[in-house]
Amino acid sequence: MTDIEYLISKYFTGDNSFSAETSSHWKKYGEKQSIKKDYKSRYWKKFNSRGKNPLTKLVIKGEGFGDFKSLNFMNFISSVPIYIYCAIRLWPKLKVNTLLKTSIYSLKSRQIFGYDVTRMALTIEFLEKNIGNLDSKSFCLIGDGYGRFGSILKSIFPNCKVIYINLGRTLLFDYYYTFKVFPKSNHLVIRTERERAFR
User: Fold this and answer.
1) Which phi and psi angles does 115 have, rounded to 5°?
2) Phi-psi map region of 57: left, alpha, beta (phi>0 left; psi -120 to 50 alpha)
3) What is the enclosing helix (H) or strand (E) of 178?
4) Which end of the chain is less congested by CB atoms within 10 angstroms, N or C?
């Protein structure tokens, strides 16, 4: 069972009730998280024809952990005011390389390059200015949501190591979107204490 299949089976199929420790916020928004396979997708057919199915061309939806807008015509049009604000006030503050790599990330992950994505790119530049070269560093990100910060970080500094810690259901979103951007990278889900000791 692949890691993504493990997350799906553990949190989205069968008995997917919430534990007693789950907060009211995550119970509310966790019920809005959904997952399905897009069987009509050419990607789905391509993965299955090769006998591989790492991503299974999932269609996943969630709320309560970040502003996410899919990259489509309607969202592009509705985001024009945000683009204008970012283009005037925020994007000029970014290095050309950061702007380029973040734009490529946005296209690969199929999401709007809006305020949230811009804010994360600015944060990465702030860290680089105060810490130095981030390319050889390891980062532990707690609650990244859509795997945005980690993916942008890895896009700009490809040799850094990113570790996500998140609630199980939301970890699927980290994994899914990071995998979309970096399909050839080594993605591992630590399932047990024993696995943690050996990875």
Assistant:
1) -65, -45
2) left
3) helix 168-181
4) C
pLDDT, tens digit (0-9, with 9 covering 90-100), for 104-146? 999 999 999 999 999 999 999 999 999 999 998 999 999 998 9
Segment 47-51 mean pLDDT: 47
Structure tokens at 138: 């390891």
Distances in whole angstroms, Cα of residue 4 to Cα of each of 56, 100, 143, 176: 9, 29, 18, 8
How many domains does the chain fold into? Answer: 1
Count other Cβ atoms within 10 Å, centred on residue 164: 22
Tokens of 1: 């069972």
> Given the DSSP bridges, would you call strands 34-37 and 58-61 parallel, antiparallel or unpaired?
antiparallel
Could you tell me which of 41, 75, 73 has the C-alpha nearest to residue 59?
41
Helix (H, G, I), strand (E, B) or coil at 147: coil
d(CA 87, CA 106): 16
Domain that holds residue 148: 3-198
Q: Specify the residue for token string 């630590």.
A: 190
Number of neighbours of residue 123 by Cβ within 10 angstroms: 13
DSSP assignment of 15-76 equals S-PPPTT--HHHHHHHTT-EEEE-TT-HHHHHHHHTT--SSTTEEEE--SSS---BSSHHHH
140 with 165: CB under 8 angstroms?
A: yes
What's the CA gap between 153 and 134, in Å, rounded?
9
State which amino acid sits at residue 113: F
